[in-house]
Amino acid sequence: NWSNALWRLWLQLQLNRNDSISFDKALNKFNKLYQDDDNQFFVIALLEKEQKFQIMLDFIDQQPLVNSRVKLQYARVMALLSLKKIAKAEFAISQLKARKTLPALNWLQGQLALLKNNPDSAITFFDAHFSEQPSLQGLAKLVPLVIKSGDIKYGIELGEHYLASFPNDHQGRVLLSQWF
């Protein structure tokens, strides 16, 4: 009878071994034993980190009441976007808009806009996300798009705003110095 932590470690080892059969078996057993949100999002984060988006999507779709759980729906859209399933992602985003929205909705819409080759719309969505939740990931996505659009001044303002909020982020400083 393994502990939750030991199961998590076992899943990581199975995934790193690239043995899909062993991983599938371990994942199914883990999912039956630990069906709480923390463990589900541990698996989703693990699969996202390893860029196993189809497995991530299949895992999410196997969860009970997936359609009524907003955070699982956001993760599902992220997997769909990563797999470039544009029509399905667009439909899922439209469903999320009708529900309780989270700041991540702007991020997902920005990703969708990029996949649809609409950088101006992507900038609008990423900018809205960045203003609600400034992050290095948001900075790295937004500033190059803004610069490419020709608005270098606004790119500098975004960088200054970010560094004012996160003055010790040396990685952010390095990124900004490369862009400007």
Describe the structure.
By secondary structure, the chain is mainly alpha-helical. Helix content is 76%, strand content 0%. It has 11 helices and no strands. It has helices at residues 4-16, 20-33, 37-49, 53-61, 70-82, 86-97, 104-115, 119-132, 136-148, 152-165, 170-179. Helix 4 packs antiparallel against helix 5 and helix 5 packs antiparallel against helix 6 (86-97). The longest helix is centred in the N-terminal third of the chain and has 14 residues, at 20-33. The protein is globular, with a radius of gyration of 19 Å. The termini are far apart.
Topology, please?
Layout: H1 4-16, H2 20-33, H3 37-49, H4 53-61, H5 70-82, H6 86-97, H7 104-115, H8 119-132, H9 136-148, H10 152-165, H11 170-179
Summary of the model, kept short:
With 180 residues, the chain is mainly alpha-helical. Helix content is 76%, strand content 0%.
Low-confidence stretches: none
Order of helices and strands: HHHHHHHHHHH
- End-to-end distance: 56 Å
Share of residues in helices: over 70%
Separate helix tally: 11
Tell me the overall shape. globular
* Rounded mean pLDDT score: 91
Give the beta-strand count: 0
Structural class by sheet pairing and helices:
mainly alpha
Percent strand: under 5%
Largest sheet descriptor: none
From the alpha-carbon coordinates, what is the Rg to the nearest angstrom?
Answer: 19 Å
